[in-house]
Structures are given as structure tokens and as C-alpha cells.
């Protein structure tokens, strides 16, 4: 019983994987995410039961505001039925196994801090680009949770507006999914989620759509600039599916430098932050959740 089970709850799929105590991934798989609480708990219980004789603990990553110390999920992102579920307590009472729950963006940050491109960085940010803008902040070598567990919820940041609307929030302006949809529409694609065709046009610098992509990257660059002014970080790492496209990092870096260049003498007052891509892709949340569980074990 020296292994750990990690479960990453997403809106469409639940990924799960078995890890050894060094963080080496031994096996992984996925299943569909149920659409109600009763069915969700059945799936979680079945997964744990299948590995119960091999594991010493369960690590969970999921959307929402998470009280990591208590294991309580609030709101649950798109999975609203998870609101106020104490999943750690459920797992302990059902299986007698210690369990931790951590927000998915924060799990990605922990993965990078443990074994990825934030390793050895005491002040950093993992910026996850997807449907919204997720994030996890490393401050003084620790994951920053915040008073209300919402530190790093970058989607909630707003741009100036007379009356704040959802479209004025960074989760919309910085949404990679929305950007892809806008580009696909401009290209006349039947499938508005065809990321491959979208990035073929972007990489070709198609004049019809490249300005849309530039605007998206500039919004992310402004976000990085503002967070750097507040937190004074060493490094920001960019994650999410689109980060696999090298043009994303290149354009964000270019837009960030353009912002600095426009500051004139003030550019020297904010130390530029190093911007890289995340080391981990789709496995980041699984890895980060395991690290959170190991941290809990060490604190006991």
C-alpha cells in the first residue's frame, strides 16, 4: 500500500491515475463525468474500491473554490452539484483513507513547483488558458490559498466598465476557447471548436484572424504585467491545451515586451518576469494533487 490514487475531475471527463511515492505515474485512464452528485459519488467510490488494496491515500483535483484543509468544495465551477461537498470526509468514512482536495488551477501550479518549470521558484504563477483563465500562485515557496480560498481565480478579474458584465471579466476576454471560436467564425469553419484548423491559420499569420489572436495574447500579457506589479514574481508558466502551440508563448512574450516598451521611464520600476510554458500537459492536475496529499502527510 505504497501507492497513491489521483483523481482529476473535469466538466467532461474524470481522469484517474496510480502514482508511486516518488511521483512516478504507473497507470492512468478516464471516464465520463456524471451530471449529478449521487452518480458522481458512485463513480468516485468505484474508482477507489478498484485500487483500495494498493493505495495509502487519495488525491483529488477539481474546479471550484476549495477549502483544501477541510476538503470541502464550494460551487464546483460548471459542476454546481459539488457545492459544499466534503469529499475528504466522504472518502475517509467510506474507505478509511486520507484524502485531499485541491482546485485544478492550484494543482497545476503545485505540479510545476514540485517537478516542473516552477521548481526552485519561490515566487511564481501557473497560468492555465482554457474555457476561462485559471491559475495557481506560489508565494514564499508555498501555494497561496487566500482568506476565502480564491487566490489565483484570475477569471474573476475585471476590465473597466460602467456596469460590470460577464463579458468584462478576464474569464471571457482571456478565454482561449472563446478566441478559437471567434477565429473559426471568421474563417467560416463549420466546426467552431476546430483548434487544429484555427492554429493552422494563426501559424500562417492569416491577416483575417491574426489580429484576433494578438488581442487575446495582449489581454494575457496585461494580466501578467498587472500580477507582476502586485506579486513581484520570478517566473510565470503558461499551461492549457493551446500552450502546446509555440506561437502562443512567442506572441504573449512579444505583447508583454510591447507593454513594457510603452512605459517609457516607468518600465524600470517593474522588474520583467520570465515567461515560459508549463512542463506538464494534461497530467498536471493529477501530479499536483498528489503533491498536495504528500504535503498533508508530512504535516501530520
TrEMBL record:
Family annotation (InterPro entries): ATPase_NBD (IPR043129), ROK (IPR000600)
Protein keywords: Transferase
GO molecular function terms noted in the UniProt entry: beta-glucoside kinase activity
Keyword match Metal-binding: no
Listed EC numbers: 2.7.1.-, 2.7.1.85
Matching CDD domains: ASKHA_NBD_ROK-like (cd24152)
UniProt keyword annotation of Transferase present: yes
Family: Belongs to the ROK (NagC/XylR) family.
Protein name: ROK protein
Name of encoding gene: bglK_2
Amino acid at each position: 500500500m505504497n501507492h497513491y490514487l489521483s483523481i482529476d475531475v473535469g466538466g467532461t471527463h474524470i481522469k484517474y491515475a496510480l502514482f508511486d511515492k516518488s511521483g512516478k505515474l504507473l497507470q492512468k485512464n478516464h471516464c465520463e463525468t456524471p451530471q449529478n452528485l449521487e452518480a458522481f459519488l458512485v463513480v468516485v467510490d468505484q474508482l477507489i474500491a478498484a485500487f483500495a488494496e494498493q493505495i495509502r491515500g487519495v488525491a483529488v483535483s477539481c474546479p471550484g473554490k476549495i477549502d483544501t484543509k477541510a476538503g470541502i468544495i464550494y460551487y464546483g465551477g460548471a459542476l454546481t452539484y459539488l457545492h459544499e461537498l466534503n469529499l475528504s470526509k466522504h472518502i475517509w468514512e467510506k474507505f478509511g483513507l486520507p484524502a485531499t482536495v485541491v482546485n485544478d488551477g492550484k494543482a497545476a501550479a503545485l505540479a510545476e513547483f514540485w517537478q516542473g518549470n516552477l521548481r526552485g521558484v519561490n515566487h511564481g504563477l501557473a497560468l492555465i488558458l482554457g474555457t476561462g483563465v485559471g491559475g495557481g500562485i506560489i508565494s514564499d515557496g508555498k501555494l497561496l490559498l487566500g482568506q476565502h480560498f480564491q487566490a489565483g481565480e484570475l477569471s474573476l478579474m475585471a476590465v473597466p466598465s460602467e456596469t460590470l458584465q460577464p463579458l468584462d471579466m478576464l474569464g471571457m476576454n482571456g478565454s482561449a476557447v472563446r478566441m478559437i471560436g471567434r477565429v473559426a467564425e471568421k474563417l467560416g469553419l463549420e466546426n467552431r471548436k476546430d483548434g487544429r484548423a484555427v492554429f493552422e491559420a494563426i501559424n500562417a499569420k492569416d491577416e483575417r484572424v491574426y489580429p484576433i489572436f494578438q488581442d487575446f495574447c495582449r489581454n494575457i500579457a496585461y494580466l501578467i504585467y498587472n500580477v507582476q506589479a502586485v506579486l513581484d514574481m520570478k517566473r510565470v508558466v503558461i499551461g492549457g491545451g493551446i500552450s502546446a502551440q509555440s506561437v502562443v508563448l512567442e506572441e504573449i512574450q512579444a505583447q508583454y515586451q510591447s507593454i513594457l516598451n510603452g512605459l517609457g521611464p516607468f518600465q524600470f520600476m517593474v522588474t520583467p518576469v520570465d515567461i515560459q510554458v508549463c512542463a506538464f500537459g494534461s497530467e498536471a492536475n493529477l501530479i499536483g494533487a498528489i503533491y498536495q496529499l504528500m504535503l498533508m502527510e508530512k504535516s501530520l
